[in-house]
Design goal:
This protein is an alpha/beta fold and 221 residues long. The protein has one domain. The protein is 22% helix and 28% strand. The strands form two sheets. It has a five-stranded mixed beta sheet, covered by helices on one side. A three-stranded mixed beta sheet has the order 3-4-6.
Length: 221
C-alpha cells in the first residue's frame, strides 16, 4: 500500500480539453514553446497583477519569435514609406495605455496548447479540490491573451521595451484544444523563490483557416 502511494505521488497526471475540431482545411502551421516560472494561483485568486505578470514574462519571448521566425520577421519592415505590420497591429489593439500585438487572432487562426506544468508538490495534489487544476489553467490562459477591458489592466503601465506589447492571442476563443500534464519540478528553489512557484512549458501550435498564410507581411491580413 505504501509503495502504491509513493508511485502515485510520482506519477504525472494528464487532462485534456477539446473545445472545437481542428480546421479541416488548415493553412500554414507554426509551432513553438514559451516558458513561464512563478506563482500560478487558481482563477479566484488570480488577480490582475498575477495575470499581467504572466503577460510580462512572455512578452520578450514572443517579441523574439516575431523578430526571428521567417513568417513574422518581415512584419517590422516599412514598405514604401508606410507603417510596419507590427505598428498596424499595435494601433488596432491599443487601449488602457498599452499597444498590444497579438500573434493569434481569433478571426484568422486556430491555436492548440500542450502545457507541461511542473511543481514541487506531488502531481496528484493539483488535481484535487485544493489544487484546483482548472482554476490554475484559467489563470494561465487569461495571461496568454491580451486584456479585453481596462479593469484587466488595472494600474499597470508599459515598462521599458513594452511598446508595443507582444501577446500570444487577442481572445481565448482562438484556442481549439489544449492538454495539461502535471509533473514534479526537481529544480531547487532559487534564493527567495517560494516553494509553491511553478514552471510551465507551453507548447503552442498555430494554423490559419482555409489554407491561408501565417505571414503577417501578406496583405491578406
Amino acid at each position: 500500500m505504501q509503495d502504491a502511494l509513493m508511485d502515485e505521488q510520482w506519477t504525472p497526471r494528464h487532462k485534456s480539453w477539446l473545445l472545437e475540431e481542428w480546421p479541416s482545411e488548415a493553412g500554414d502551421t507554426m509551432e513553438f514553446r514559451l516558458v513561464l516560472r512563478g506563482h500560478l494561483p487558481p482563477d479566484k485568486r488570480g488577480t490582475v497583477p498575477v495575470k499581467h505578470r504572466i503577460r510580462r514574462e512572455l512578452h520578450p519571448q514572443l517579441k523574439t519569435l516575431w523578430q526571428q521566425h521567417p513568417a513574422l520577421r518581415r512584419s517590422f519592415d516599412t514598405p514604401n514609406g508606410g507603417i510596419s505590420r507590427v505598428e498596424e497591429l499595435a494601433r488596432n489593439h491599443s487601449h488602457s495605455g498599452f499597444r498590444f500585438v497579438p500573434l493569434v487572432k481569433k478571426d484568422h487562426f486556430a491555436c492548440a496548447l500542450d502545457i507541461l506544468l511542473l511543481r514541487r508538490q506531488p502531481p496528484f495534489r493539483v488535481l484535487d479540490p485544493i489544487g484546483d487544476l482548472d482554476g490554475r489553467v484559467k489563470t494561465l490562459i487569461d495571461g496568454l491573451r491580451m486584456p479585453q477591458l481596462g479593469q484587466e489592466v488595472g494600474e499597470n503601465t508599459p515598462g521599458v521595451d513594452e511598446d508595443p506589447f507582444f501577446c500570444l492571442m487577442d481572445d481565448d476563443s482562438a484556442i481549439f484544444n489544449f492538454q495539461v500534464t502535471v509533473d514534479r519540478l526537481l529544480v531547487p528553489p532559487e534564493l527567495n523563490e517560494p516553494e509553491k512557484d511553478i514552471m510551465a512549458i507551453i507548447g503552442v501550435k498555430v494554423t490559419t483557416f482555409a489554407g491561408g498564410q501565417i505571414t503577417y507581411f501578406s496583405a491578406q491580413f
